[in-house]
Design a protein that fits this description.
With 383 residues, this protein is mostly helical. Helices cover 53% and strands 4% of the residues.
Length: 383
């Protein structure tokens, strides 16, 4: 990445933060990507091996501390307190391991260091430890960044048009059905996406992140898909050995439930970044990369913003400059907000409230009535 510099474009009008549901503009932005880059301090594009590893070490110290306390002291607690201690461990460990997941995600974007081999090595180890096929996800996620907001080519959380809804959709458009849908999405959504491409881009045959010859990957990527599979298999084998040594309940309590928390947060974060009543999607007649990259929203997860290394509240900047390390993303966001103006979208609604609202309001996409904007699609909920 080149360095930034002095801003050479007039700031766009600022969008009131309280009006988070107002639609973002769909006209061609009055700024370019290079102008946004010039608005960002040059140091934000610099990647530091030592600083990046400091976050890995910090997360592993926390994870090790939680593990030590849980495995050495919880069994000494009175029985009623154990029912409080273990859920606290699951929640806290799951949040910290979500931060580990985010660092591996940085590696997939070559945002960890200046050395691709180091990024891939660290990312492979971290993601494999969380049962994520690193290279498989890296390549599909790269295509997501290349095609964000495109109804035809985006890779994940691609909304359906009303005509594409299944017949049972209307029976889930109520509070009990919504609760069931969210529960399934948070518990099974991530493994179903990896294995069967659920909520992903439609392909002409089964798209599976574990299949080197699936339609997601090119010929030159297939060998690394085998490597990804080997990493996941190795961790499964290690877990199998742990079950033999410690028992299945121990493995579930120490590793399995925190992993479920990681997967739930991963789905929540990704879903809420790209699903919002104010965000458009585009078909091939309207889509371009910059408008697609801007069709995302920053969210506020409170203290978890820091735990998740700010992947939640700097996502707009991340989509514009994905090789920028996370520890500079906040400064970059502050720098580009005056330039983006109304094209910048932030919603401070608590994530647990937002996921319910978006599940209710964002059932499908359709264009507005009339001839203008036929290639621009907005979320709707009327069935």
């Amino acid at each position: 990445m080149g360095a930034g510099g002095r801003m050479s474009v007039q700031p766009s009008p600022k969008k009131p933060e309280h009006d988070s549901l107002k639609r973002v503009p769909i006209t061609k932005p009055p700024f370019t990507l290079s102008q946004l880059k010039k608005a960002i301090p040059p140091h934000c594009f610099q990647r530091s091996v030592l600083r990046s590893f400091s976050y890995v070490i910090y997360d592993f110290i926390l994870a090790s501390l939680f593990y030590y306390v849980a495995t050495n002291y919880f069994h000494h607690l009175p029985q009623p307190l154990r029912y409080v201690a273990w859920p606290l461990y699951w929640a806290m460990q799951g949040c910290v391991l979500t931060g580990v997941w985010v660092i591996a995600h940085e590696c997939g974007h070559h945002a960890f260091s200046d050395y691709q081999w180091l990024d891939d090595t660290v990312g492979f180890i971290l993601h494999s430890s969380l049962l994520v096929p690193y290279f498989s996800w890296k390549y599909s996620h790269r295509r997501h960044h290349s095609n964000t907001g495109s109804l035809e080519r985006d890779e994940v959380f691609v909304p359906k048009k009303k005509s594409g809804l299944r017949w049972w959709a209307k029976y889930f458009n109520n509070p009990p059905g919504r609760l069931l849908s969210i529960t399934v999405q948070l518990t099974l959504g991530w493994p179903l996406y990896l294995a069967f491409n659920v909520a992903g881009r439609p392909y002409d045959r089964l798209a599976c992140h574990y299949n080197p010859y699936g339609p997601i990957f090119s010929d030159r990527e297939r060998l690394q898909i085998y490597v990804s599979d080997a990493g996941v298999i190795a961790v499964f084998y290690a877990l199998f050995r742990l079950v033999l040594a410690k028992g299945l309940p121990w493995v579930i309590c120490v590793y399995g439930v925190p992993l479920l928390v990681v997967n739930a947060f991963l789905v929540t974060i990704t879903y809420l970044q790209h699903t919002h009543p104010s965000l458009p999607h585009y078909d091939s007649s309207e889509w371009d990369w910059l408008r697609g990259a801007l069709a995302t929203v920053d969210r506020d997860y409170g203290i978890l913003n820091k735990v998740f290394h700010n992947i939640t509240d700097t996502h707009v900047a991340h989509h514009l400059f994905s090789t920028m390390p996370h520890y500079h993303a906040m400064a970059a966001t502050v720098a580009i907000k005056p330039v983006l103006g109304e094209y910048y979208q932030f919603d401070g609604t608590p994530f647990y409230t937002a996921i319910w609202r978006e599940a209710k309001e964002c059932l499908y996409v359709d264009p507005d009535d009339g001839d203008n904007g036929k290639g621009v699609f907005w979320f709707r909920n009327t069935l």
